[in-house]
Amino acid sequence: MRINMFLRKREKGSNTIELAILLPLVLVLLIGMLQLGIYMYGMSMVENAARNGARAGSVAQACPVCEAQSSAHASLTGSAVISNFSIAILAPGGVVGSTLKIRVTAHIPMLVPGGEALGLGPLMTVTAEATFRQEGW
Q1: Which residues pair with 106 in a beta bridge?
Q2: Global pTM?
Q3: Helix (H, G, I), strand (E, B) or coil at 83
Q4: Dihedral through CA 96, CA 131, CA 50, CA 34, nearest 10?
Q5: Domain tally for the chain?
Q6: Confidence at 4, pLDDT banded by 50, 70, 90
Q7: What number of H helices and E strands is found in the chain?
Q8: S-S: 106 plus which of 8, 58, 85, 114, CB 3.0-4.6 Å?
Q9: 73 — phi, psi (to 5°)?
């Protein structure tokens, strides 16, 4: 009985020390997973914006470039994850059978502290392209 009491008293502070050692590691892993999730969500949004823009431009009858840009812009407007996005039309389409190609580029903020030491900037750049063939009626 006395031996058990003696061992419990010696292990009293070990839980605190283990927590102090493991807590920073767990926090870094948690922030890293959160950053990866934000990156994947932002990449998905940029890909969908490029796809929506190219699709809207490929079915437009009057101004395919205008429709493509406005649709891609509407897909990204108001997003909390995406900042400083740009939309470029690489191939304007316009003639039935020709291709309309769009590129959407955006920035996603870094949450990981000390990312600059790891070679990461304060913003990650994501780019997506989509190509659709111009449809005719």
Answers
A1: 126
A2: 0.78
A3: strand
A4: 160
A5: 1
A6: low
A7: 3, 3
A8: 85
A9: -65, -40
> In b/e form, how buried is each residue of 73-108, taking b as 16+ CB within 10 angstroms?
eebbeebebbeebebebebbbeeeeeebbbbbbbbb
Cα 78 from Cα 102, distance rounded (Å): 20
Q: Write down the residue that tokens 């050692």 correspond to.
A: 21
Q: How far apart are the first and last CA of the chain?
A: 91
The answer, yes or no, to whether residue 2 has pLDDT greater than 70, is no
DSSP 119: T
pLDDT at 5 over 80: no
Backbone angles phi, psi at 110, to 5 degrees: -90, 135
Residues in the chain: 137
Tokens of 70: 């406005």
